[in-house]
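Protocol step 4 of 6: structure prediction from sequence.
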Amino acid sequence: GDQVPRLQLLQSFLSRNGLSFRDPDLLEASLTHRSCVSEQSSPSSRVHNERLEFLGDAVLGLAAAHLLYSASGEGSEGDMSRIKSQVVSEPTLAGIALDMGMPEVLKLGRGEELSGGRKKQAILADALEALIGAFFLDSGWEETEKLVQRLFSSSIRSASSTMTKD
């Protein structure tokens, strides 16, 4: 089937983003939307990214909070909360996912594919959270924090600068 192209696609996605996975199944799960799974029959292929998304959401929240805490020095709790909610918001996540080339590697069900799922902010944002969750399981906290810093530092900067202007 299309196994080889899929592997090449994932490999170029990883190298483009400076990522590596010891467990390729975790990567694959993080990029698999639930719409893809309902159409599969075998239980082994029923893995999708919702549980990883749950984990990634928490991991990203903690990493972003830690980065803001370290960076802001004098920032009040209210300021940090506002910046964090902007940084982990769906539009920000979807934008980063687009920059990473995530639409090309997502696995979607046919219905979702036909309705333009690859371009949907919610699906991209969820997939990025799932990828962060998968990376955390694969590489641990320190590497994940570095990844979040790399992916989100410009969003944190721009959110912080609009904060100070207000």
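Step 5 (inspection) to follow. The CA atoms of residues 97 and 128 lie 6 Å apart.
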